[in-house]
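Input record (one chain):
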Amino acid sequence: MIRLLLIWCVLLAACAPPPVVKIALVAPFEGRLRQVGYEAFPAMRLAIRKRIAAGSAVSARVAFIAYNDDGDPAHAARVAHNVALDPEVVGVIGHLVPSTTLAALSVYTQASLPVLAPSVPADMLPRDPLVFRMGPAAPSRNRKMSNAPCAALDPSWAATGWPFGECVVDAPPVSELLGAQQALAAFTELSLGPPPGPRSIVAYDATNVLLDAIALDAQVRGMPTRAGVADALRRIRHNGLLGQITFDRDNTWADAPTWAYGR
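The corresponding structure, as predicted from the sequence alone:
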């Protein structure tokens, strides 16, 4: 069963309520990989809250919905079908696990739905006009060292099938990025206790990239659409917590970093 965790509506125009568009987060919220989803979702909410505080103005309300895929590829594909059937969804962030992301991608692309795919190595994903590969390539040309020991790496990374080795991932501990500490300072208010982790960083960045694309499409067309958001994503330059995010002709973030934990 698909579990709708939250709808978070943001009224970004000051006049009469405009039409609604939606962004979907799909990730595991139950089972052995549930930490993946619970690191990501509060970070999305914080990104939204910052936009509200900044008074961003586009001509649409943006609703954020989150679905549980249990970390299971077969279930992820079924969830993707339900997401794709909702005509108000103009972009997806998911699934933050290699196996489930791969299982769901064709469902989204057949429905002309653009997908931001963080926390999955770029080389594992197909080159497709609607798949925006936010994960690093192997080997990454932007490799950095973490001050944390390898033993501090959360074991869920290995469980997700992350392929770069036991001590190499796509984001560091929050404590090692001042910008992430500041951006995610209120994380525990929304998570009701658990602190942010590396996936909180990538989810925060992905959310802001998709919000930028929706705003850009709204400026051009008035009402964001799937095709318009996909086109806008190709033109985005976002200064994220992990660096400047922009996509090349293959919809790949070529400068996506990897972080190697110490031994």
